[in-house]
Amino acid sequence: MRFRTLFFTLFVTHLAAAHPLEWLGLASWDVEGYAKDNPIGPTTGGEGGETVTVDNAADFKAAVTGNDPRIVLVIGEINLPSRLKIGANKSVIGFGKTAHITGSGLDVYHVSNVIIRNLKISFIKDNDCITIRNSTRVWVDHNEFESDISKGPDFYDGQVDVIRGSDWITVSWNYFHDHWKSSLVGNDAALRDEDFGKLHVTYHHNYWRNAGTRGPAGRFGHQHVYNNVYADFLYQAIHSRSYNQILVEGNVFRGNTREALSTYGLVIPEDSPNTCSCGDEELDGFANLGAKNDWGEAGVNITQVGNFTKAPYKFKLTPLSLVERVVKLGVGIGKI
Ligand SMILES: *[C@@H]1O[C@H](CO)[C@@H](O)[C@H](O)[C@H]1NC(C)=O
Ligand SMILES: *[C@@H]1O[C@H](CO)[C@@H](O)[C@H](O)[C@H]1NC(C)=O
Ligand SMILES: *[C@@H]1O[C@H](CO)[C@@H](O)[C@H](O)[C@H]1NC(C)=O
Ligand SMILES: *[C@@H]1O[C@H](CO)[C@@H](O)[C@H](O)[C@H]1NC(C)=O
Q1: Which residues are catalytic?
Q2: Residue 335's closest CA among 118, 172, 171?
Q3: Domain range for residue 105?
Q4: Residue located nearest, by CA, to atom 1 of ligand 4
Q5: First to last CA, the chain
Q6: What are phi and psi of 286, to 5 degrees?
Q7: Is 301 in the pocket of ligand 3 (CB under 6 A)?
Q8: Rounded distance from Cα 89 to ligand 2 centre (Å)
Q9: How far is residue 70's CA from residue 83's CA, in Å, rounded to a whole number?
Q10: InterPro entries recorded for this chain (predicted)?
């Protein structure tokens, strides 16, 4: 008990010491976008519930099970023997700079109101680091995701995938790196009825470095993608296909990127080499451009302009000239 109280006190002290970017007014550390402003209410996770610290897989599992509001502080490295399902009304928050999930990833399945912050999740085989499936109100913030791209597109799966009618999600201030297929929204062109008009996801202030595809790739939904930095996102970063609507603003591309943004329905062979060496044909998506982006040397192929012209909420847009510095300073673990 003493142990737990000590950690909680340290944690609260830690939270109170805001990051310089926040007190300079350059960025918001609070939830912003669809996980905050949506028809069913803001994402609060375990707010109001008890705080539990965990440092092993069994305690972690017990703490995230069920729908009672709970704040789960993860201490150090935990190797998960199998995927861990997070219950409703949970905040899973890494402590300090060393919270690290290895072995298996996290599932947010059939639930609402989940927050995942300040965790490193790396080298998860055969499945995603985080899969959000048939779930609403999820905030994935200030995490780090890593594997390696030398083994091709299918050795690892996604980093944060949002599928099966999930809705009202924000993915912010994450450091995604050294990974092929990063973030898929809507996982099958055949799931139109399940997904169409859902899959509202806000991606802001994420840093993607040395990735292959899907930063993000969306089908049938709406994604607002602002103030992200892409460095050497090699093949195709933002892809809107199968009637997806995407609003893209204030992003920065650096280094080697073939395509920053495409709405052409072809799922390129670099993304899914198994079905056909020529890629897979789907219907095109839509894209709208808001505040100016810096595409660097990357290509842009907008085949259809859509009707997602403005975010339906207030948000803090970082000026384009500061985006690269602000994002690199603010992302990843040990910053909240
Ligand atoms: C989606 O999740 C809800 C609970 O939030 C559940 O009632 C429903 O059966 C799930 N739907 C599917 C298709 O799994
Ligand atoms: C917790 O989650 C369940 C299922 O999503 C929800 O019905 C319930 O109202 C939540 N409880 C609290 C206290 O937020
Ligand atoms: C851009 O989209 C058009 C379809 O409108 C397609 O013919 C062309 O090959 C695409 N360009 C690239 C580089 O994929
Ligand atoms: C936006 O465009 C999509 C795709 O054409 C369409 O289904 C939807 O009804 C449009 N929404 C509005 C508000 O016009």
Answers
A1: 214
A2: 118
A3: 5-330
A4: 307
A5: 24
A6: -125, 155
A7: yes
A8: 6
A9: 19
A10: Pec_lyase, Pectin_lyas_fold, Pectin_lyase_fold/virulence, PEL
Q: Is 303 touching ligand 3 by the criterion CB < 6 Å?
A: yes
Residues near ligand 1 (Cβ within 6 A) = 110, 134
Q: What is the pTM of this model?
A: 0.94
Residue 132 amino acid letter: I
Task: List, in sequence order, every residue forming a beta bridge with 262; answer none if it has no partner.
Answer: 239, 301
CB 264 less than 6 A from any atom of ligand 3 = yes
Is 336 inside a domain boundary?
no
Is position 335 within any domain?
no
Q: Is 305 in the pocket of ligand 4 (CB under 6 A)?
A: no
Count of the separate structural domains present in the chain: 1
Instruction: Tell me, in angstroms, the distance from the centre of ligand 1 to residue 134's CA.
Output: 6
Q: Of ligand 1's atoms, which has the minimum distance to the CA of residue 110? A: 2
Determine the Cα–Cα distance for residues 140 and 182; give it in Å rounded to an integer: 14
Ligand 2 centroid – CA 71 distance (Å): 14
Q: Is there a contact between 176 and 145 (Cβ–Cβ < 8 Å)?
A: yes
Q: Mean pLDDT for each 10-residue chunk of the chain (336 residues)?
A: 52 57 81 98 98 98 98 98 98 98 98 98 95 98 97 93 98 98 96 97 98 98 98 98 98 98 96 80 97 98 98 96 96 95
d(CA 236, CA 114): 29
Ligand nearest to the CA of 135: 1
CA–CA distance, 133 with 162 (Å, rounded to integer): 6
| CATH code assigned at 94 | 2.160.20.10
